[in-house]
Amino acid sequence: MCSINVINAINKARLYDYNFLDDVTERHKFREQAIFAEKCLSKEERTTALQFLNKNYDYKKVLYNDGKRRTCENCSQKCLATLYCEHCIRNYFVKNFSNWTSGNNYIDNLIQKCQMESLAPDRIVEWIPYNNLQNVKFLTKGGCSEIYLGEWMEGRCIEWDISKRQLKRFGKMKVILKKLENKRWLNEVRD
Q1: Which of 19, 114, 124, 189 is deepest in the core (most CB within 10 A)?
Q2: What is the DSSP string of 73-142?
């Protein structure tokens, strides 16, 4: 959990006018310097702020295909991220495509496409089987869906475990669920 000091320091580092910097790496270094210059941060808060900046830095490098590449120690491909390898994460998903299905080929293909274009381990689209949910309770009905609240037992992915070559999960978390009554939403996603 981030303290108010950490959140304020991160926001302040983002507010600086750094348009004079040409690339993602220069902007990241500039933000790091801003965090180091913050006198109100304890050592632990500074570490937390830098971890947040590093995750964001990796995401931006992959998103914009910008920055210095490194050779992944696992797959030997050139990757942009420093805390994970975007290729290893995508290969991990390919290996697991046959381990799940929504029961609808279009939805499966859409999720697989999103996974193959994933930019960071904490920004992944997944199929969650209903048996991985608990305490599902009806909240309301609106539009083309019914809304429920439930608990996802595994939770979302948060980071890549380099040594185990798999995604680490957050653990039990509350989620909003929608029971779709028609396929109108599917046509919107398709377009």
Answers
A1: 124
A2: TTT--EES-SSS-HHHHHHHHHHHGGG---S-HHHHHHHHHHHHT--STTS------GGGEEEEEEEEEE
